[in-house]
Amino acid sequence: MKTFEHGGQIEAFAKALDCEVNEVIDLSSNINFVQPSIHLNFNDLDISSYPTYDALYEAIASNYGIKKEQMELFNGGSSAIFTLFRHLQLNKCTIYSPAYLEYKKAAKNFGYELQLINRFNHFDAGIELNSLVVFVNPSTPDGRYYDIEILLEYWKEQNATVLVDESFLDFTNEKSVIKYLNEYENLYILKSMTKFYSSAGIRVGTLVSNANNIKKLQEKEPMWKLSQFDSHYLQAALKDKSFKQIAKSVNIKNNLLLEEVLKNSGLFKHVYSSSANYLLVQLNSMNAVQFQEQLKPFKIMVRNCGNFDFLDDSYVRIAVKSSQSIEVLKQALESMK
After folding, report:
1. Strands (E), 171-238
2. What is the phi/psi pair of residue 299, to 5°?
3. Is residue 269 in a domain?
4. Helix or strand or coil: residue 282?
5. Mean pLDDT over each residue of the chain, to the nearest integer
6. Where are the transmembrane segments (predicted)?
7. DSSP-derived pairing of the beta strands 132-136 and 92-97
């Protein structure tokens, strides 16, 4: 695998199998398979004038229970990450890994001295003073939710600038660290709404912090970063007030169903319980590439996790999708016995 390769390369997969994209069951991409009800005619949008974002800021701020002054929008979560790393200009970065690979890429691109903490085996490892600390919660690629209250106190003692990535928190009933914003001056939180609202093609990422930090961040930002299409789609999605609970309930139900199918297959050494919409598994007697090859007749894609830090090619991430998709996966797993 390439060092920073991700899942979701569905068009290349379909081309290799000589099939249509809509025939592929994409279990490699952790995008919500439940979609909000959108009542919006894009043909009616006025795209002749420059976009304004007041309504979008108000909608997102209301969704997360924060003030508009406590957030800044970016052209996707990755853009928010790279902007923050560049803006902070710190020397050291600690990433609790394995983690979303764009963090490691950003640290390398901006010359940070990098420390990786294996959160599976050395969760309580120390960090250096004045570091930038990155913690993904729920984690990637295993979906575990951590209570990090004690860690926050320790990071504060170490004068760390902390970025907590909560891109998948909406799939859970757990609490955000937003409540610590008034107590922790150097706390930033990443919210990637497009994961939960099933819109990876709508590039909107949100950084949350105290108003002073956001003001300093905005001083070096361009005036226009999002299109009218991005803005209006998310506003329309947020108007579906029943979506949150429905999507969360369905994903939790199918998460349990998928976990049961995986555990009963006998093909895995370990199936990690997850609070998010994906599960990490460790294969018994084959590697990820061999496993992917055996799934191809069923047109199923899964994520090889061999390029994550502290993992190898015996690890695979499988996304939670529809019950029909899980049934096809079950058939595929039975064919491997």
Report:
1. 187-191, 205-208
2. 60, 40
3. no
4. strand
5. 93
6. none
7. parallel
pLDDT > 70? residue 304: yes
How many residues are there in the chain? Answer: 337
Q: What would the pLDDT profile of 3-25 be if each residue is shown by its tens digit?
A: 444 455 889 888 989 899 999 99
The pLDDT tens digits of the residues spanning 267-289 come to 999 999 999 999 999 999 999 99
Is residue 300 in some structural domain? no
Domain assignment of residue 137, given as a range: 42-238
Check if the beta carbon of residue 132 is closer than 8 Å to that of residue 161.
yes
Three-class secondary structure of residue 303 per DSSP: strand
Q: Is 321 exposed, middle or buried (0-12, 13-18, 19+ CB in 10 A)?
A: buried
Cα–Cα distances in Å, from 220 out to 72, 87, 111, 273? 12, 8, 20, 41
Is the peptide bond preceding residue 36 cis, with omega within 30 degrees of 0? Answer: no
Give the whole-angstrom CA distance, residue 111 versus residue 107: 6
Q: Tell me, yes or no, whether 167 lies in a domain.
A: yes
Q: Half-sphere exposure of residue 247, counting CA atoms within 13 Å on the CB side?
A: 25
**What pLDDT shows up at residue 41?**
81
Following DSSP, what letter does each residue of 30-98 receive, concatenated?
A: ---SS-------GGG---SS----HHHHHHHHHHHT--GGGEEEESSHHHHHHHHHHHH--SEEEEEES
CATH number at residue 189: 3.40.640.10
On whether residue 311 sits in a domain, the answer given is no
Contact 75, 226 (CB under 8 A): yes
